[in-house]
């Protein structure tokens, strides 16, 4: 029984290793690295991984160290950009939707996610008794809402 548990554990760990692998920046293909450095010249504290068939880099920018996560395809195309933002950087339509549908809630963990030309906003909304994770489009429409 112990051998079976050990084998299952090793197998599970190997699957995790296959799906995401930390790599050093010098292992990143030059086309990806060049595009990253052009797009984010002030990036600091970079951390590279390969996830499935994409290169993921997490990094910080700005004085306060805003967090970013960017995914690149193998040919160097930026596939997805996720960035931490402040409430003041939300579109007015999103703020209006929050004020209408979540009056009395405070915002937390705000993210702007860009995939191609599509932009969405992930927002955690909290009050004394409830927490929601809500996804808005740029026009303030709620695309997804789930209790947290």
UniProtKB/TrEMBL annotation:
Domain Putative beta-lactamase-inhibitor-like PepSY-like, residue spans: 20-79, 81-143
Pfam families given in the database record: PepSY_like
SUPFAM superfamilies per record: BT0923-like
Name of the protein in its database record: PepSY-like domain-containing protein
